[in-house]
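Lab notebook, bench 4. Still working through the backlog of constructs that have no structural model yet. Next entry is a single chain of 338 residues. Request: give me the structure tokens for it.
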Amino acid sequence: MTLFIFALVVLLTAAFAFINGFRDVSTSVALAVRTRALTPTIAVLLAALFNLIGAFLSAGLAVAISQNWVALPPGTSGLTIIAAGLASACAWGIFLWWRGVPSSSTHALVGGLAGAGTASAVVGGHSVGGVDQSLLFQVVLPLALSPVVAFIAAYLLVFPVTWAARYTQPSVVNKRFRAAQSIAAGAVAFGHGLQDGQRVSAVLILALLAAGYSDGGSLPMWVALLSAVMITVGTLFGGWRISHTIGYRLTRIDPLRGVVAQGFSALLLFIGAIGLHWPVSTTHTVTSAVLGAGENQQFATSHRKLVTRILSLWVLTPAATAAGAFVLELALSPLIGI
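Model written out:
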């Protein structure tokens, strides 16, 4: 039974990584396509390449993430908690993609693991450890703070950038910043690979640890390859519904503000992944930075009703995936004799 559930977890992790790349490619390419800095095909290929590099390089950070994230019970109980959390996060991600709403895969996964752990404890099994101070400071606060920091910083950074370009012809400014957007799009894709690649790998490390196939102190090569390849394949398929929301519906954006939003977002992703080992949501960060940069104009540009709906769904995401994983874990519990 352990081997069967472990194989199920691997399949669900691969699906989660694919959906992650499929949805989050929007954060890298939406603005570059919107401002005609890149064609859709070139933008997706660029994002896929840098996602692959970032996700593969993130393998070295995954072990530290898994050790500071959550503690799962050993055996089939821990494996079913992961399976239920992943399945709930995947279902929620597909639903929000269909609605064209950008949201955090990490938030969805954390909510799913918490809900599944609660269900396991309710039926007399083991709960998920670390859902207290460690989870608060390593997961919840970084995910909640990154949108606020991104919005404020992008809004403020527009001032010095526009001041520096004040004597340059608008056509020249647009041309230069379109070129810079190609670099910024690649940087965001690389940061996304660093961030989400290590979390996908961390889930597999936790599964190996729960199944007794690893001591959790090292990362098998197949784990790094699976994470990087599935995120990249998802990126190549591209979820254009969310790209349309970010690039066209959310706010009016020009090349200058696009570079500000994506450049600062990439910096925040790098600091979170490499410097602080914090999970930072690429979707939350880029979406908030786009709103911040777009708001710094002399006329109203943001779609207020859409912004309110997106924020509401961001808040709802952990609760929704926790509820779904709770039900799934209850359904799985009889299979493992809890």
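Notes after review: DSSP finds twelve helices and no strands in the chain. The mean pLDDT is 86. Flag for follow-up if needed.
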